[in-house]
Amino acid sequence: MPWKKVSFSYQRKGKRKGMATLKKEMPIEKTSIMATEAARLHIEKIRTQKFSIGAKSPNPLTEDLHHAVTSLSAELYAKDVHFLMELIQNAEDNEYKQGVEPTLEFVFTTKDITGSGAPATLLVFNNEVGFSEKNMESICSVGRSTKKGKRHLGFIGEKGIGFKSVFLVTIQPHIFSNGYHVRFSEDPDQDCGIGYIVPEWVGGKPYLSTICDIYGSDKVLPTTIILLPLKPEKVEAVKAQLSELHPELLLFLSKIKRLSVCGNTCNSKEDVNVSDIFISTETDHVALSDKSADSRVLHLSVKEDGAEETCRYYIWRETFPVKPANEFSARNDVKKCVISIAFPFGERLKRGTSAVGIFAFLPTAMITNFPFVIQADFVLASSRETILLDNKWNLGILECIPSAFFHAFISCVKKDATTICSVAQAFEFLPARSSTILELNNIRKLIKNMLQGEAFIPCEMFDNRKHFCTPQRAIRILPKFREILFQMKEQGVPLGGMFSLKENVIHSSIDLIEFTGILDYLGVPSVDNSYQWYGKCIEFCNLVLSASEDAYMELLCFLADNEKISSLKDFKKMLLFKCVNRKGHVRLCSIATRGMFRIYYSQEPKLHAWLTECNIEFECPDDMCFLPSPTLEALISHKRSSLIMCWLKYNTGLSPFSAVSYCAQISDHLMKTDEPRFVIKLAHFLYHAHCKKFIMESMLYGLCTRMPVIDGSNCIRRQKNVTLVSAPGSKWKKLFGPSNPFSENNYVDIGKVYAEGGQFAGECTPKGVILSFLSTYTRAVDIPELHPPNVVLKVASSKLTSEQGFLLLDWIRFLRTKGSYIPAKFIESIRDGRWMKTYLGFNSPNRCILPDEAGKTIFGMMRTVVERFSILDQDFYMNRITLYADELKFLGVRFGSDGVQKLLVDRFKSLAASGMSKECAFSLLMFIGILKGKNMLDEAWLGVMREGKWLKTFNGYNAPRGSVFLQSEIEANAILTITSLPLVDTGFYGSNLSSFSSELTLLGVVLDMKVYELVEESLNFPADLSSLTWDSGFLILKCIRYLGSATSSLVEKTRNQRWLKTSCGFKRPLESVLVNPEFMRLLDAFEVPIIDEAFYGNTIRSFAAELKAIGVAVDLNSALKLIVTQFKSFLSSSSLTPVKVISLLECIREINENVSSQLQELHQCLLGEKWLRTRNGYRTPSESILFSSKWGTISLFVDLPLIDDSFYGIVIYGFEDELKMLGVITGFEGGAPFVARGLTRPIEPRFVTDLGTIALLECIKYLMSKSNDQPLLDNFFSNLMRSKWLKTRKGYKKPEECILFDPTWEVILEETDAPMIEHTFYKSEIFMYKNQLRAIGVKVDPGDVCSLLSRYLMSLTETSSITRVYNFLHMFNWKPELPDKDYQVWVINHNGNSGGEWVNSQLCILHDKDNVFNSHLYALDKCYQKELLPFFSSAFAVAEFPSIDDYMWLWDSLVMRVNSQVTAKECCSFWDYILKNWSPHTEDFLKKRLTKVPATTSTSERIHLVSKELVFIPDDLQLKHFFSSIDGIPLFVWLPKCKSFSTVHPMRLFEIYESLGVRKISGSVECHASISHSLDQYKMDPRNGLIGRGLVRIVLGFIAGPRVSMPVEERHKVAKLLLDLSVFESREPILVSYQLLLTADKTLEVEAGKLVFWDKNSCRLLIDKSGYEDRKSNIKFVSCFAREIAEGLLACEKADAIENLSKIIQIGFMFEFKEESMVTLLTSENLELFAEDEKFLDAACLLSKQSPVIRSLPVMPPIDDNSQLLTQPNLKESRWRKVPNYPDPPKFSSSSLYPKRRSQQLELLSPPTPESSQKKPRQ
């Protein structure tokens, strides 16, 4: 932003200095000639004596001064010094005459008043006493400040830089003071070679008259003037620093009273009136008795552009002693530390800068986030921007800041609150916000800790007096409650109880939202954390009873609105709610008593009154209460009664009540009490409520059913399932007796107490009325209509009379007739009860029978089974019993002979459910035989008998089906041993059981041989195998033989079970062998289990077939398989001992004599298993080697699997033939693969002998000729090639590092020139293995030797050896394998010695005829013979002459010039070579290397070398014209003129610039439009619209076409964007700001007019009315409109797509976008709309003839949530303002449509920053 003229001033009240005093000062131009001459002589003296200028002999101290100045320069530019702060600091430390107002003024001008060519000059004016000789000598020195050691006197300078900081912005500063007219230079003085401190007298420019004109001809020049001609690159930085001078910097300066900044440009119209910032008043306010602190109030005002702003500062200053631990060398003279705290009242004066929080006399850049300012004598960093937080001096100051703030704050709050500020204003200075700096955050915490113990928070006790409390006792309350308290106070309610509370209510002035953060910082509980206080306040102040009913309602409304308060546990115990108790008095209850007290009300007055009386009659059951009438009236009349009622309902259960609900409540209460009188009263209540019409008849049934009653035993019955009629005169009494048998089942009989009369609520009731009332409305019943419960009928267990019996049968008949469900327990108790009379006594119906004659006979035969059954006594029932035949059958009584038979069947069924006695079992078998003989067997019944577990077996009682019966005792014992079959217990039943075999078969018992079939399924061997006997084994074999082919399952079960007795114990059949003498020898050797024939006898061999079937080895083949398996088990268990191996070899030797084909499997097993122990572990025979003397030479370094003779002993060598037969390696040649595999680590040279080497070569020879395992060979070669095992002249080397020397090379090479194999060590045998050596990498052929020599060459340092190697390489035409590699070339010293050096071949050339590149390149023709030079060119790519790189080096040397300027001739020379050698390679090379290109300005012929990122190709003449008006900036590339550069056309160079990355001006400019919101806006006629259906059709067709191929969803988004575009018309011109982006932070800007502009931020299309009116003939308007639409819609697409769409839109514009014409236009362009696009176009509600609505731009646009551009109305110029989510808006000017140059100047000659190279301009 442009900086403004600003003036800072400071003066005390009543001591302002007038202009009369200023006029008394002597002007500089009127100082005495003698003073000027004395000053000049003094300068000459300094130059002569100190710097030895003009002296014959140099000053010995000059060199020291030079080093000191060099150090000063390094320090100056290493520190980020703010030079203005240094100058202000120096002015503060200067001396001033008494009565003079110390003033410092900065004047910026664009005039070059010093004549140095500077673009601008900064003048500094100070009215100090002026420079003395001591001051001048100090400024001409380094480290000789006149202020050292004077810190205690108020001097604030300390960095040792001071005035010399101006060299950051200027090259030649000038000083005019007390006759001194001198200047200093950054460049070393030409006479003494020292810069910075050498003074030079100024005799000419600048003239004092020029300075007077700038300062003001009507003003007197101050004593001291400093002129700073600014460096071009520092102009903007100085302007920025001037504009950023903080207005508060005057607060803590003790001398400077006024500081001003103003500008003076060449154009007087641009001058701005001087503005002032000054402290208008200063008042001493407080001085403590110990004089360690004082305070004052300052008013700082700012006048700028005629407006005045003022800020008042309360400054507290306090002195603290310096602790020894905090003493600092730079502050040794300071014993007391002074800290100032400033409180700004009002908005601080910042002038666009940040709010500085820390001052060290002058402002730093530290942001504290604190609302106050801290001033102290801090030790600063060199940049003055921050304090050193780890400095012990600063740490001491930071420790004192909390105390200083505490005293200042308390002074404001308590002592000075009335005179300085309000308490609320003082609280705004508390550091509520945390700081990002840890040390300052600690200060914030310490301040909080100190405030915790101080009573400073104002409280409100509602007694019209001031009160303060500590933060711990303060509390915040809700505003509504505060209003209630004030209301009660006005009503006279005493609030003195608040003094009894621990917490105090903070004053309303600070209990505001804006103080939330401050109160949180102090720890004052928030509103959410102070809910407990409200209950205490209500309780201690007795607000419920003291308040009026209306106030009481407000209190309840407040609690209803704040549920968090009323939900607190302690609050729930408070007595808040009013109600009427049982005596009619008002009482209080709480939320906690909700379960004990319930409050009700009724809307009907009569009902409410009667219910109240009833409630008193019932004595308020369950503490049911009613609201007092006044409270109810206040509640109903309250405006928020519904809210209060809802809240009371939730917290107290307040509910409206009717007579029905009240009755239900009473009934519920009586369910929990034992007061019969209340139960009787409830009946009376219902009766009278019904009479009074309070309860309808339809509700009575439910209420009476629900209410408790008193039964016949005078007990209260609360639960009633069924109500019985009263006992007197009832049938149930005749059957059951006087007591109710179903009482426990809630069958309640109405008590006779209800038959009596009574009185309730003052009304009488006659006798019998209540009993009749209850009988009717409780629906009382009697038998037989009574439905019984599901319980046992106890009377059925007693002997019933015939009358009772018939009552019971009638009851059952009624229930069955009605189809009612008869409960199970009820009917079963009747069936099982002994109430029926028989001839044998009383019995249950299900055990009674009425048989005919045949049935009596059967019944007599089975008397023992049916002994509990008897026949009914018909005489007892007077022969009427047969009338109830259906009921008797229903009860289980049996009739006739069929009934007898069914009785027996059922009886046997019941007996079969469990174990049956022996007698019953035989009876059953006999009964089955009888029924079988009569063909009367029932299969269903017989099936039940088969499944019943009644048959006794050895496994317990079991069902007959599946049980086994065997007569053989031996087989029976075997069955019991190996199976779980249920074998019938013959010992229990005896031998008679066998006579019932047919009956047993009918029942499913398995007999005889069929038992074998069951053994397969139930086979189960015992855990203790010792219990197995021989008969068990034979039983299994018999089963297998009996079952034959159907025994597969049994075979599988027995194969893997251990049950066969063998020589090794019980084994599985698969592990056992039936011995055969033919292979007895092998079996003994391998310990194979053999079946124990002594256990089984010879009979076992008769079952050979069965044994073979289950897996027993009975022949040689199967036995061998077991032997192999046993051998493998020895291997897996590591139990193959040497003895067993030797025994195995002996067995092989014996068997080998009688070789049998059947032993091949054993042989294959021995070959494939790892059973031979070697030095490398267990191996297969083919992987093992039997040691011999030939292996000794290489066994030292090769890991070989030699058989471990220490394990087997030397006896192993006696089986060489057997081992060889098994595949063991016994010869050397066959072991070559083992050598290859055994070499796993590098060979150590100490283990290698000449014979060992020859042996290895023999192995290589064998493998190369015989082996087909190429990976093995490759791995072997790899191990050999990485070992240093070949002896050469240079020591042991790897094969690839060795050369086999050919004697024919002796004429060229010597053996010592390279690592040649030492043939004298290996004798002549080594030459026999050339092929093998070549295979492992040894260099044998000349080509390979050349390759190795080229790599070995760099290790040589003797010219003779190197030359021989070069000649060898040249002889065999060696070429490098990697041509692009940078090789080193040996360059011989020019003095003729053999010495030299290795240099990069790229730095060498063959010839340098003119010796131009002596300092850069090496010419080889001076080092080697002519014949060898072609070798360097072909082998090392040494160039014959200099290349483009060399010329590039020359160009770089031009770039390194100080002024970065070149001549046209130099440019022509360089570009002439480039153009002659132009190629793609040259182009790529220059893109990488060429960073600066020549550029010129519009007004100068000078050619500057400027970064190619900062210059542009002028391809757009209009834009070039816009930006050419900026003087002094080389923006456009240099193009040659025809005369000076005639070899190439300028356009050719134009193309080269573009290919090298120089940007075109057309693609590097961004534009922003602005239209003043104060201008008139008009709404366009909708019929003249521009955006319609035709334009949308063009856009959709184009973006769907092949040029863009946009997906359908994105196409519709683009079309929607166009349809949502609002078109606005303006009569004022649309200004477009063109910004030329140089780097990320450097931009040039000009302004111009535009006819159409699309504002992306607001989705508006701005149209200039002047162009719109003649749009059909205005080609400029048409092209601008088409271009804006195309660029706005296709911003992310390629430039050619935008151009093509723009052209189509221009054509469509000429046809007014008529849809028929647009279809034809798209067809001509080979474009069309897809179906989905047509559908979208139709759905967009744009008719073919409809035009868009063109909206007028509002005067003041709304500010939406996206933070759009903010503008101020009625202002023609808007300032830059930072808005989120959008780039900074441009500064617009509506003065004209012509380009306008910006005042911003840019640094163009400096190299670009990395950020600038990454940012791409908008196309």
UniProtKB/TrEMBL annotation:
Organism superkingdom: Eukaryota
Family annotation (InterPro entries): Auxin_embryo_med, HATPase_C_sf, SACS/Nov_dom
Region (Disordered): 1774-1819
Naturally occurring in which organism (per UniProt): Vitis vinifera (Grape)
Residues of the Sacsin/Nov domain: 77-188
Protein's name in the database: Sacsin/Nov domain-containing protein
